[in-house]
Every structure is written in structure tokens, then in C-alpha cells.
Amino acid sequence: MELMELIILIVAMVIIGLFLGWLAGVIFKDDRPYGLAGDIGIAIVCTVLTGAIDWYVIPAMGFSDTLRNIGILIEPALVALLVLWLIRRAKR
Question: How far is the CA of 32 from the CAs of 35, 62, 85, in angstroms?
Fold first, then answer.
């Protein structure tokens, strides 16, 4: 059962990454340093890695499954947006 949940998590993180990568141009209102494909790729990598780390680390710290799910919903999106923002600042 855990493998199926992990697969669902990865698919959800890819969808969130696609959406955030597309939305980054609207949020930050400036040129995309690596284009739309770069924003989407960076957002997908960030959301999948952060989501997978949260999947294993939050329960290992003794938190409940409910808190793990809340963390997985919020933190990967924030990390992806932070990385996209940092890339924009670094390319200036």
C-alpha cells in the first residue's frame, strides 16, 4: 500500500510543479530566465524532491500522518516558488 501512495504523491507533485512553473510568470511578473520549459522543469524537480523528503522525514520525526499530509500539500509548493524566485534574483 505504501508504494501506491508514493506513486500517487509523485504524480500529484508533478501536476503541482507543472502548474507552479506555468504560474510563476504571472506571480513574479518578469521575464523567465530559462523560459517556460525551464520554470516548469525546475518547479517539478523541486516539488517532487521536497514531497518525497517530507514523505519520509516528517513521520520519522514522530509527527502524525495528518501533519505529514498537510506538510506535503504546502511545503513543496513553497519551496518551488522560493527556488524560482531565487533564480530570477540571481539572473539579474
Answer: 5, 40, 10
Look up the pTM and report it. 0.88
In whole angstroms, how far apart are CA 8 and each of 15, 35, 59? 11, 28, 18
On the question of pLDDT at 1 being above 70, the answer is no
C-alpha cell of 90?
540571481
> How many CA atoms, within 13 angstroms, populate the side-chain half-sphere of residue 36?
5
What's the confidence (pLDDT) of residue 6? 84
DSSP 62: T
Count of domains observed in the chain: 1
Distance CA(10)–CA(8), nearest Å, equals 5
Domain range holding 53? 2-90
Please give the Cα distance from 81 to 42 (Å, whole number).
Answer: 10
Q: Which three cell numbers stand for residue 1?
A: 500500500
